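R.M. (postdoc): so does anyone remember the format we settled on? I'll just put the structure tokens first.
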């Protein structure tokens, strides 16, 4: 009972929007389905794992909402996951789209789901940089998580390719990440 009350408090507390937070489109606002099951994270988290979705990009809220719905359908209906695998997704419109959210375990990086948030940049960033708008939304999301006690003060941003056998988040976005103050060289070792 205490865990459920604490979780409810954290959800309500984190829902409060402050100046550190980007524009977050709620799951209900983009037309997302509820999860089939939930595992809660133990907060605060030390890591953020960055991915790309390897889908077409999107540049408007309606376009990004459809793209996130499609990703959720693929994750749940084809892969059989409980929900969309990412905690958040970032669209080319600069908005952040809620996936599993702040307090629920995603299915983004095997072996790291319990100690990190997974953030998916919508698009393919192997041969193209993510826009400044997308990168700024990511940094605002980091600050929002820190100021609300979800992420540790010294969070580490990790390219998925640093900790698993994948090209994600793409070569160009991985190179961009090397200049981020939160980026760590070599994964979580």
């Amino acid at each position: 009972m205490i865990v459920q009350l604490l979780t409810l408090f954290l959800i309500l507390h984190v829902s409060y929007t402050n100046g550190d937070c980007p524009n977050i489109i709620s799951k209900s606002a983009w037309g997302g389905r509820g999860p089939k099951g939930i595992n809660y994270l133990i907060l605060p988290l030390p890591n953020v794992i960055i991915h790309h979705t390897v889908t077409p990009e999107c540049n408007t809220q309606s376009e990004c909402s459809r793209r996130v719905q499609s990703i959720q359908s693929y994750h749940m209906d084809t892969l059989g996951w409980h929900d969309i695998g990412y905690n958040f997704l970032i669209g080319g419109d600069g908005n952040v789209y809620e996936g599993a959210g702040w307090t629920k375990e995603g299915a983004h990086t095997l072996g790291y789901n319990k100690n990190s948030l997974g953030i998916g940049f919508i698009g393919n960033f192997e041969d193209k940089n993510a826009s400044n708008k997308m990168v700024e939304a990511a940094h605002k999301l980091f600050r929002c998580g820190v100021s609300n006690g979800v992420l540790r003060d010294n969070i580490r941003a990790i390219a998925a390719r640093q900790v698993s056998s994948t090209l994600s988040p793409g070569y160009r976005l991985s190179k961009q990440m090397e200049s981020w103050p939160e980026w760590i060289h070599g994964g979580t070792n």
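R.M.: ...and that's the designed sequence above, right after the tokens. Also worth knowing: Strands lie at 24-25, 45-52, 88-90, 96-98, 116-121, 151-159. The longest strand covers residues 151-159.
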